[in-house]
Write a structure and sequence with these properties.
Number of helices: 25
Structural class: alpha/beta
Largest sheet: 7 strands, parallel
Number of strands: 20
CATH architecture of the largest domain: 3-Layer(aba) Sandwich
Strand content: 5-15%
CATH class of the largest domain: Alpha Beta
CATH topology of the largest domain: Rossmann fold
CATH superfamily of the largest domain: P-loop containing nucleotide triphosphate hydrolases
Helix content: 40-55%
Strand order of the largest sheet: 3-6-2-7-12-1-13
Number of domains: 4
C-alpha cells in the first residue's frame, strides 16, 4: 500500500492548513488498529481534537483495501457537513499518497428524497385517491415550488434531497415525498429509473465510504431491509446519542386518527365490511384511550390491549383483501393500492406489537394538545439489539466528546451492548473468539485522547451551594436573584440551560424585568434565528431547554457564562425511563444510577461543553443545584464533567465575570 496512517494524517492536516494534535494522532492509530484486529473501540475525543480526521484517515486506508466503511452521524446536519466539506477536502489533500481516490456517498432515509411518482401522480387524499391538486394557501404554494425544484434537480443530475430544497414546511414536504413502506419499488414504479432515492442507493453500492445517520443505520439493522450496502466497519460519530436515536427508530405510535385515515384510504380496494371494521376498531381505541390515564400501559389495562387487538385483526383482514389480486401495473396503475398496503401493514405491525405487550417493550399513553391521545411503544432496552444486529458481525468504532460518564466508559458501553467484563486493558491482544452464541464475548477497548483545552485554566465550575435544593414547583426567588446577578456581572454573554420550558420562560421574564440586557428565549422565534442572533451580539443572552444542551457552537466572547438551573434527571413520570430504571432494580442493580444518573451525567457533560469551544475561550459554568456536591451521587456527576477549576465562592465568580467582560 505504501502509506501508513501517520503519513496520511500528516498530509491531511497539512493539506487542510491545520496542525497536528497528539490526541488526533492517538485516535487515528487506535481506530486503525481496531479496524485491523476486529476489536470494538470507544474513543472519547474532546472538542477541538479534530476527531473527524481521527477516524476518516484510517477509514481511507481501510477503504482502498476494498473493505467498505459506513460512517453514521446523529444528525443530517453533520452528515451533510462530512459529505459536502470534510471528506472532499480530505481526499484532495491525500490524493497523491493513495493508489486510487476512494469513492464516497451519502445515504438518507427515503422520506428525505423527493418522490417523482408522488410529484407527477399526486398525493393520496383521505379517501386514498391520488389527487394532483396542491392544497390551498401557503402550503400549496410551497408544494408547487417543491415540484418545480425536483424536476430541475432531475435535469441537473442533482440529489433531490430535502437539505437542498427551497424553504418549506413539513406538511408541504409530505406532499412530495413518501415513506419506504409506501414506495412502489423501482421495478413497479414508472419513474423507477429516475428515482432520487434509488440513485442514492446505487451510488452507495459503488462507494468505499458511505455516510449515513443513526436512524437509517437502525432501520438497516433492525428491520432487515438491507438499506445500506454490505460493510465490515461502522464508525459511529456522536455516539453518545446512539441509544436514544436507536430507541426512536425502533419505536412506534398508534392513534385513532392514524387508523381511521388508513381505513379510508384503503376502502376503494377492499370489502366495505372490512374497511368498516377497521374504522370501528379505531373508535374502540379512542374510547379506550379516553378512559385511561396518561403513562405506562400495564397488562391490567385490558381495554387498551383489547382495542389494539381489534385493530390488529381488522388490519389483517384489510391487508388480506389488498393481497387478493396481484398488484402489477394493470391492477394498480397509479400505485395507490400499493401505498394503501404499506400503510395498512404498518398499522397491523404496530397494533400487533402493542397487543402482545412483550416484556421487552414499553407501551405508554400520551395526550398531545393539538392531536389528542395516542399510544407509543419502544424497546425497554436497545443494548441487546445493538449487540446482536450491529456489533456481532462487524467492527464498530464509537466516538464522541462525551463517552466517559462517572470517569469510565462502562455506562455507555452497557447502553450500546458491550459488557464491561469484555473490555481489553492496555497492551492486551485481541483474543481469538470462536464462540458464535449470544453470550460470546465482544472484546472492546476504551480510549480517552483528552482535549487540547486547558480546562483548569480556561474554565471555572461554580456550584451555588448556598441555594436551596430545587423543588417541583420550579425556580424560586433565590434562584432568580442568583441568575440576575450572574448575568449582570457577565454583561449578558450567557447561555441559560433550563430543565423545563416553564423555568426558561420564568427566568427570562425575571432578568428582563431586573435589567436592560437583551435576553432571547427559546420559543420567541425559530431556534436557528435565535442562535444566530445570540452569536452575532456578544451582549445578548439565550435561555432555553434541551435542544440547546447539545450541538450549539458559540465560541469566543459570545458566551462567557453557562447557567444550569438543576441536575437534568429524567422526569419521574417519564414512562420509558421509569420502566428502564425499574427493570434494573428488579435485576438486582441500581436503577437510579444506571438510568437516571447516567442520563443526567450525559446531559451535564454536553451542557458544560457549550462553554469552551476554542483554546482562547474563557468562562464559567454555574450550576444552581447544590446536590451536585451534597448528594452521594454528586461525585459520579462531577467525574463526568471536564476538569474545570471548582469553587463555591460567589464573590470570586462575580468578580471573574466582570473581569471577563472587560478583557
Amino acid at each position: 500500500m505504501g502509506v501508513d496512517v501517520h503519513e496520511l494524517l500528516e498530509a491531511a492536516v497539512s493539506g487542510l492548513n491545520g496542525q497536528t494534535r497528539p490526541g488526533q494522532v492517538q485516535m487515528a492509530e487506535a481506530v486503525n488498529d481496531s479496524m485491523h484486529d476486529g476489536s470494538h473501540l470507544l474513543v472519547q475525543a474532546g472538542t477541538g481534537t479534530g476527531k473527524s480526521l481521527g477516524y476518516l484517515v484510517p477509514a481511507l486506508l481501510h477503504a482502498i483495501e476494498d473493505r467498505r466503511v459506513v460512517v453514521s452521524t446523529a444528525t443530517l446536519t453533520l452528515q451533510s457537513q462530512l459529505v459536502d466539506r470534510d471528506v472532499p477536502a480530505l481526499l484532495d489533500a491525500t490524493e497523491k499518497l493513495l493508489p486510487r481516490r476512494p469513492k464516497y456517498a451519502i445515504q438518507k432515509g427515503r422520506n428525505n428524497y423527493a418522490c417523482l411518482h408522488r410529484i407527477r401522480e399526486g398525493a393520496p387524499d383521505d379517501e386514498g385517491m391520488l389527487v394532483d391538486v396542491p392544497p390551498a394557501g401557503p402550503i400549496g404554494q410551497q408544494v408547487v415550488e417543491l415540484r418545480e425544484w425536483a424536476e430541475q434537480q432531475l435535469q441537473d443530475g442533482a440529489a433531490g434531497d430535502r437539505d437542498h430544497a427551497p424553504s418549506h414546511q413539513y406538511q408541504a414536504w409530505q406532499q412530495v415525498a413518501i415513506s419506504a413502506r409506501e414506495c412502489l419499488g423501482a421495478q413497479k414504479c414508472p419513474y423507477g429509473e429516475e428515482c432520487f432515492a434509488e440513485k442514492a442507493k446505487e451510488q452507495a453500492r459503488r462507494a468505499d465510504i458511505v455516510i449515513t445517520n443513526h436512524a437509517l443505520l437502525s432501520i438497516d439493522a433492525f428491520e432487515n431491509r438491507s438499506v445500506l450496502p454490505e460493510h465490515d466497519v461502522v464508525i459511529v460519530d456522536e455516539a453518545h446519542e446512539l441509544p436514544a436515536r436507536v430507541t426512536g427508530a425502533a419505536g412506534d405510535e398508534l392513534s385513532p386518527q392514524m387508523v381511521e385515515r388508513v381505513a379510508k384510504r384503503s376502502r376503494r380496494f377492499v370489502d366495505d365490511d372490512h374497511a368498516d371494521d377497521l374504522i370501528d376498531a379505531s373508535d374502540a381505541l379512542r374510547a379506550a384511550l379516553d378512559q385511561s390515564r396518561e403513562g405506562r400501559i400495564e397488562a391490567t389495562n385490558a381495554v387498551v390491549l383489547e382495542a389494539a387487538a381489534l385493530i390488529r385483526d381488522a388490519a389483517r383482514a384489510v391487508y388480506s383483501d389488498l393481497n387478493k389480486k396481484s398488484d402489477d401495473k394493470d391492477d394498480d396503475p397509479d400505485g395507490a393500492k400499493r401505498q394503501s398496503k404499506g400503510a395498512v401493514k404498518e398499522i397491523f405491525d404496530v397494533a400487533e406489537r402493542v397487543a402482545a405487550l412483550s416484556d421487552l417493550d414499553v407501551v405508554w399513553l400520551v395526550d398531545r394538545d393539538r392531536f389528542g391521545r395516542e399510544l407509543r411503544i419502544a424497546p425497554l432496552t436497545v443494548a441487546g439489539l445493538l449487540r446482536e444486529l450491529v456489533l456481532k458481525d462487524r467492527t464498530v468504532v464509537l466516538t464522541s466528546a462525551t463517552l466517559t460518564l462517572g470517569g469510565d466508559f462502562d455506562a455507555i458501553a452497557r447502553q450500546v451492548g458491550l459488557r464491561p467484563s469484555d473490555k481489553l486493558d492496555d497492551g492486551d491482544e485481541m483474543p481469538a473468539v470462536d464462540d458464535d452464541s449470544e453470550t460470546a464475548p465482544l472484546p472492546w477497548r476504551g480510549l480517552d485522547v483528552g482535549s487540547p483545552f486547558e480546562y483548569e485554566k480556561q474554565a471555572i465550575l461554580y456550584v451555588a451551594k448556598h441555594l436551596p435544593p430545587p423543588h417541583r414547583d420550579g425556580l424560586g426567588q433565590k434562584q432568580f436573584d442568583e441568575i440576575i446577578d450572574l448575568v449582570k456581572a457577565a454583561g449578558g454573554r450567557t447561555l441559560g440551560l433550563f430543565s423545563s420550558r416553564r423555568a426558561a420562560e420564568a427566568a427570562t421574564a425575571a432578568v428582563r424585568e431586573a435589567t436592560d440586557l437583551k435576553i432571547l428565549c427559546q420559543g420567541d422565534a425559530h431556534l436557528n434565528e435565535l442562535s444566530r442572533e445570540f452569536v452575532e451580539d456578544p451582549e445578548t443572552s439565550l435561555f432555553g431547554t434541551l435542544s440547546l444542551w447539545q450541538g450549539l457552537d458559540v465560541p469566543g466572547s459570545t458566551c462567557n457564562l453557562v447557567i444550569i438551573d438543576r441536575i437534568p434527571f429524567p422526569r419521574p413520570d417519564e414512562p420509558l425511563m421509569a420502566a428502564r430504571q425499574r427493570a434494573v432494580d428488579e435485576a438486582g442493580g441500581n436503577g437510579f444510577m444506571s438510568v437516571a444518573a447516567t442520563h443526567a451525567a450525559l446531559l451535564l457533560a454536553q451542557g458544560t461543553g457549550r462553554l469552551i469551544r476554542r483554546t482562547t475561550d474563557r468562562g464559567i459554568v454555574a450550576i444552581l443545584d447544590p446536590r451536585i456536591v451534597t448528594a452521594r451521587y454528586g461525585g459520579f456527576l462531577r467525574a463526568s464533567l471536564p476538569p474545570m477549576w471548582p469553587t463555591a465562592d460567589r464573590e470570586k465568580v462575580l468578580g471573574a465575570l466582570k473581569r471577563l467582560q472587560t478583557s
